[in-house]
C-alpha cells in the first residue's frame, strides 16, 4: 500500500488529509523515524514525542511564511520530513547529507539555525520584533522543551518578551525529560500544572458518577471544599507565566491532533497584544515501546556504523578516574549541565549523590556555581562538552580565572565530533582557553595520560582544563596509581634531527605513524606530545626547534589562536624567527557533519596529512635523500 507520507511534499499536502489519515500519517512517520535513525544515529525519542505536535503546527500555521523556531533543533526530524526533505531523510547526519538540527542553508522552512539549547525564545522574539518594525504580518512560534527551558537564556528572553508584549507564541513541549529527567524548581511547577489537569479530569469523572445519589452529592461537596482549601495553599502555577506577561494556555495533550489544532487556532487568533505560553504534554519516545520505556537511552542513539572496539572511551576513563579520586578525596565534587549520560557520570551520581550536581542546561551557572564552591575549599570538577563550554566564557574568565580559583574543567568532545556537525564540533576551546590568565590547559594523548592529568588538575591550586576527544582511547587503561604530571612539561615520544612534530592530545599517534613513514624516506622527525598547551614546555620546544630549524604543529582546533599560534609566538619571543613553522589544524570555517576520520583527513589531521605537510613544505629534506617512494605516503 502506498504511504501517505510519500505524497507529502510540503505542509500544504498535510491540509488535504482527514483525521483518520492523519493518524495513519503519524504512524508512518514513526516508522520512518525508527528505520532511519537506528541506522543514521540521532535523536530518536525526542522526535517520536513530537510527531502529532509537528503535524498540528504545520496544519495550523503556514510555513515558511509563518516561522517555526525549534529549540536545540534535535527534534526537528518530523518537521524535515514534512517540509520537502523526505527524499533526503536517509542522508541524515551523514557527510553532505541533512543536518541533525535546523539549518537556514538547508530549507526556507528553517528560519533559524540551532544545535545549542535555550535559544528559541530569543530568536523568535527577534523575528517577531523585526516583523513588527517592518509592518509585516505572519505568525512566529518557538517550540522549546522543558529541558531547554532550564537554560538561563530562555528566561532572559521570556522576561524581555513579557515586557515587550510582542505578539508570538512560545510552545512548551513538556515531557518531563531533558536527556535525563529534567531538574529544577520550575519542573516542579510544571508538574503541578500537569497534576491540576489530571485532578480536573478525575473531578469531572467523579461528578458524573456521584451526582446521581444524595450521599454521592454530599461526598462531592466535601471534595470541592477540600480542593478549594488545597488550592488556596498553593500559588496557581499558570499564574507564573501570566505574571511574566504571557497568556497561558494549556496544558494540552500533545498527541491529540484535533484538539491540538483547535487550540493552536485559538492561540493564533488570540495572539494580538501579548505573547502566548502554550503548554503541551507529550511522551518522549511515544509509539516505540523501547524508547517509551527508556527515553534516556533512546534520547540519542549511536549510528550502527560505530565500531565497537574493546578499548574504553576517554569519557569512560574520565568518569572512572574521577570516581577513584572522589572515593579518596571528600573535597571533590562534580557538576554537569544536564549531560550526565554523555559524561558517563551515572555511577558517580549513584555512589556520591551529595557530591554530584546536575544543574540543568545551565553552563554559565555551572561555572560560577563551581567558582563559589571553590572559594570554600571544595574542589569542583565541571564535566562539560567543549562546544557547550563556549556558553560560559565570561564566567570562566571573570568568576573562575580572575580569582585564580581551583576549578577543573573536564572538557569532553574536544576536537572533531563527527555526526552532530558544525554546532557541536569542539574546535575553539584551545583558542578561548589559552587566552585566559591563570588557566592551565592540558590534553592527554591517551586514556592513561587522562587519568594522570585529571589527578594533577584536581591537586593543582589553580584553574585547569583537561580536554579530550569523543573517541575510544587507543589502548586499554586500567586503574593504577595516580601521579601528578609536572605542569608545563611535555614529553618526547621520538627523537629526530631533521624536523620536530609538536602534537596536541591523541594527534600524537598519527604523528608517530607519520614519523615512521618519513623515516622510510630518510627524514628523521622528532615527535613531541605537548601535554600542556599552557604553559608550554618552552625549554623542550625551543631546544628541538633550535636544533632542526623546522617544526610542524598538529592540533584538532582552529588555527586562529590555537596551539600552533602559541608555538609561533614562543619562537618569535625567543628570537627563533629563523625556525620554519607549519601548522596543521582547522582553517577559518565551520566544519560540517560526517565521520570523524573523513573530516580529519580533509584537514590533514592524520598520518598521510602530516607526511604531506612535511614533504610539501620542506622539500629540501626529501631532495637531500633523493626520491624514494613509500607506501605510507598517500
Ligand atoms: C547549551 C547546550 N547544552 C547541552 C545540550 C545537549 N542537549 C541536547 S538536547 C538536550 C535535552 C533537551 O531537553 P528538552 O529541551 O526537554 O527536549 P527533549 O529532548 O526532552 O524533547 C540537551 C541537554 C545542548 N544542545 N545545548
Summarize the structure.
This protein has 634 residues and is α/β, with parallel strands linked by helices. The protein has four domains: 5-194 and 240-289, Thiamin diphosphate (ThDP)-binding fold, Pyr/PP domains (Rossmann fold, 3-Layer(aba) Sandwich); 196-234, no CATH class; 314-467, 3-Layer(aba) Sandwich (Rossmann fold), CATH 3.40.50.970; 491-624, Rossmann fold. The structure holds thiamine diphosphate (TPP).
Question: Mind explaining what this structure looks like?
Answer:
With 634 residues, the chain is an alpha/beta fold. The protein folds into 4 domains: 5-194 and 240-289, Rossmann fold, CATH 3.40.50; 196-234, no CATH class; 314-467, 3-Layer(aba) Sandwich (Rossmann fold); 491-624, Rossmann fold. The strands form 3 sheets. A 7-stranded mixed sheet has the order 7-6-8-9-11-10-15, with helices on both faces. It has a 5-stranded parallel sheet with strand order 1-2-3-5-4, with helices on both faces. It starts with 10 loop residues before the first helix and ends in an 11-residue tail after the last helix. Residues 229-235 and 628-634 have low confidence and may be disordered. It binds thiamine diphosphate.
Amino acid at each position: 500500500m502506498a504511504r501517505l507520507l510519500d505524497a507529502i511534499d510540503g505542509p500544504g499536502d498535510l491540509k488535504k488529509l482527514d483525521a483518520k489519515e492523519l493518524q495513519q500519517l503519524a504512524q508512518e512517520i514513526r516508522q520512518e523515524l525508527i528505520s532511519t535513525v537506528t541506522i543514521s544515529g540521532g535523536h530518536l525519542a525526542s522526535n517520536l514525542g513530537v510527531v502529532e505536535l509537528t503535524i498540528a503546527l504545520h496544519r495550523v500555521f503556514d510555513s515558511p511564511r509563518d516561522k517555526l523556531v525549534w529549540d536545540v533543533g534535535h527534534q526537528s526530524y518530523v518537521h524535515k520530513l514534512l517540509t520537502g526533505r523526505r527524499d533526503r531523510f536517509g542522508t541524515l547526519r551523514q557527510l553532505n547529507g541533512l543536518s541533525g538540527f535546523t539549518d537556514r542553508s538547508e530549507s526556507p522552512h528553517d528560519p533559524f539555525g540551532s544545535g545549542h539549547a535555550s535559544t528559541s525564545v530569543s530568536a523568535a522574539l527577534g523575528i517577531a520584533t523585526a516583523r513588527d518594525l517592518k509592518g509585516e504580518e505572519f505568525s512566529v512560534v518557538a517550540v522549546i522543551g522543558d529541558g531547554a527551558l532550564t537554560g538561563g537564556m530562555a528566561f532572559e528572553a521570556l522576561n524581555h518578551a513579557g515586557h515587550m508584549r510582542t505578539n508570538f507564541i512560545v510552545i512548551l513541549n513538556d515531557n518531563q525529560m531533558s536527556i535525563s529527567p529534567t531538574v529544577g524548581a520550575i519542573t516542579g511547577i510544571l508538574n503541578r500544572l500537569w497534576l491540576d489537569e489530571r485532578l480536573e479530569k478525575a473531578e469531572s469523572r467523579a461528578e458524573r458518577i456521584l451526582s446521581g445519589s444524595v450521599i454521592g452529592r454530599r461526598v462531592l461537596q466535601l471534595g470541592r471544599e477540600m480542593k478549594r482549601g488545597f488550592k488556596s495553599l498553593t500559588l496557581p502555577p499558570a499564574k507564573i507565566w501570566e505574571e511574566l506577561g504571557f497568556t497561558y494556555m494549556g496544558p494540552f495533550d500533545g498527541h491529540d491532533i484535533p484538539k491540538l489544532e483547535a487550540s493552536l487556532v485559538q492561540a493564533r487568533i488570540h495572539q494580538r497584544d501579548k505573547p502566548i505560553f502554550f503548554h503541551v504534554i507529550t511522551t518522549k519516545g511515544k509509539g516505540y515501546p523501547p524508547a517509551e520505556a527508556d527515553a534516556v537511552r533512546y534520547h540519542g542513539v549511536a549510528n550502527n556504523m560505530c565500531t565497537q572496539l574493546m578499548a574504553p572511551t576517554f569519557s569512560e576513563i574520565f568518569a572512572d578516574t574521577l570516581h577513584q579520586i572522589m572515593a579518596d578525596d571528600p573535597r571533590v565534587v562534580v557538576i554537569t549541565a544536564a549531560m550526565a549520560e554523555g559524561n558517563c557520570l551515572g555511577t558517580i551520581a549513584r555512589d556520591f549523590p551529595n557530591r554530584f550536581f546536575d544543574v540543568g542546561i545551565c553552563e554559565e551557572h555551572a561555572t560560577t556555581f563551581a567558582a563559589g564552591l571553590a572559594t570554600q575549599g571544595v574542589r569542583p570538577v565541571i564535566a562539560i562538552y567543549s562546544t557547550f563550554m563556549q556558553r560560559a566564557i565570561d564566567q570562566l574568565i571573570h568568576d573562575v580565572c580572575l580569582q585564580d580559583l581551583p576549578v577543573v574543567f573536564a572538557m569532553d568532545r574536544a576536537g572533531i565530533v563527527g555526526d552532530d556537525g558544525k554546532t557541536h564540533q569542539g574546535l575553539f576551546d584551545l583558542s578561548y582557553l589559552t587566552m585566559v590568565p591563570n588557566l592551565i590547559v592540558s590534553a592527554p594523548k591517551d586514556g592513561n595520560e587522562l587519568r594522570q592529568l585529571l589527578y594533577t588538575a584536581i591537586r593543582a591550586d589553580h584553574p585547569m582544563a583537561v580536554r579530550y576527544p569523543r573517541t575510544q582511547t587507543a589502548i586499554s587503561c586500567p586503574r593504577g596509581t595516580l601521579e601528578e604530571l609536572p605542569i608545563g612539561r611535555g614529553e618526547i615520544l621520538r627523537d629526530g634531527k631533521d624536523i620536530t612534530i609538536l602534537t596536541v592530545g591523541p594527534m600524537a599517534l598519527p604523528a608517530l605513524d607519520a614519523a615512521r613513514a618519513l623515516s622510510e624516506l630518510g627524514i628523521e622527525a622528532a615527535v613531541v606530545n605537548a601535554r600542556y598547551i599552557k604553559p608550554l614546555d618552552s625549554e623542550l620546544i625551543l631546544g628541538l626547534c633550535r636544533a632542526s630549524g623546522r617544526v610542524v604543529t598538529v592540533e584538532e582546533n582552529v588555527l586562529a589562536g590555537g596551539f600552533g599560534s602559541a608555538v609561533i609566538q614562543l619562537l618569535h619571543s625567543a628570537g627563533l624567527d629563523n625556525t620554519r613553522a607549519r601548522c596543521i589544524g582547522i582553517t577559518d570555517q565551520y566544519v560540517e557533519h560526517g565521520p570523524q576520520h573523513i573530516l580529519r583527513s580533509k584537514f590533514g589531521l592524520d598520518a598521510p596529512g602530516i607526511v604531506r605537510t612535511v614533504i610539501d613544505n620542506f622539500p629540501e629534506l626529501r631532495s637531500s635523500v633523493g626520491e624514494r617512494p613509500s607506501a605510507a605516503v598517500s
